């Protein structure tokens, strides 16, 4: 297991290096000059366009944007290698400090959305498989189809209109008490629950068709024992395997949801950075997302080996 873990981490290093190059390259194709974007936010009405161009050239030099592409990339890579994510073009503050201030809000939203997802996905997925081709199954599949089809931002606006504007049950914007968390967590968790529910239902149906499940039913074991003790553990293997995409959906979806609900997290910070062409912030966020994906997938592989003993047996045979 340790040898496998070391191997996986070593393999991910070239992947992360390629990600850094791709991020850095794509950002340079975004239209707009970061120096001019920054100056326009503080543009003096009495200044001329010539003044703007002159000041932009000076600022571009200060930010190192006049250097060749290779020099810029290697300089940034050296900083990242030492744990320095850079400095924001706009605020001139260390990015790691600004991210650290906003990470708790994003983790709070992601954690609450994950709870919402599990509360909805597990019962509906199990019910759909147990009551296969019955009204319960049809209802859960229909709800899951709606959850997959409706975009997060649209669902968020609907919930704001119905639960906040019409009924007045929850606050609309900002972060404060638990009531502020309900609408964004429900919006983010519902779409992910639909996908997970469908996957769990399909996996359970496949497990139910196995010979050992037929044998368990022939022995007269209670239905609850068959489902929760024998079937569910095996059915969770593909669900756990897809958990990396779930976490990616939580982090990626948070960017949109935080904007819709004015949630002061990392996602909203990154959206502001994109609008302001703040390259270092965008690069740092994309790199951290890539690292998170890699580490989560390694962790999922380890959990997969715990859930499926056949993988350990095959590793022992080949070893």
Automatic annotation (TrEMBL):
Compartments, record wording: Cell membrane
Main location: membrane
InterPro entries listed in its UniProt record: BPD_transp_1_N, MetI-like, MetI-like_sf, Opp2B
Membership in a protein family: Belongs to the binding-protein-dependent transport system permease family. OppBC subfamily.
UniProt membrane topology term: Multi-pass membrane protein
Pfam families assigned: BPD_transp_1, BPD_transp_1_N
Top-rank taxon, per record: Bacteria
Keyword rRNA-binding set for record: no
Protein known as: Nickel import system permease protein NikB
Keywords in alphabetical order: Cell membrane, Ion transport, Membrane, Nickel, Nickel transport, Transmembrane, Transmembrane helix, Transport
Native source species: Paenibacillus agricola
Membrane spanning stretches: 7-30, 109-130, 142-161, 181-200, 235-261, 281-304
Residue intervals of the ABC transmembrane type-1 domain: 103-300
Subunit structure, as described in the record: The complex is composed of two ATP-binding proteins (NikD and NikE), two transmembrane proteins (NikB and NikC) and a solute-binding protein (NikA).
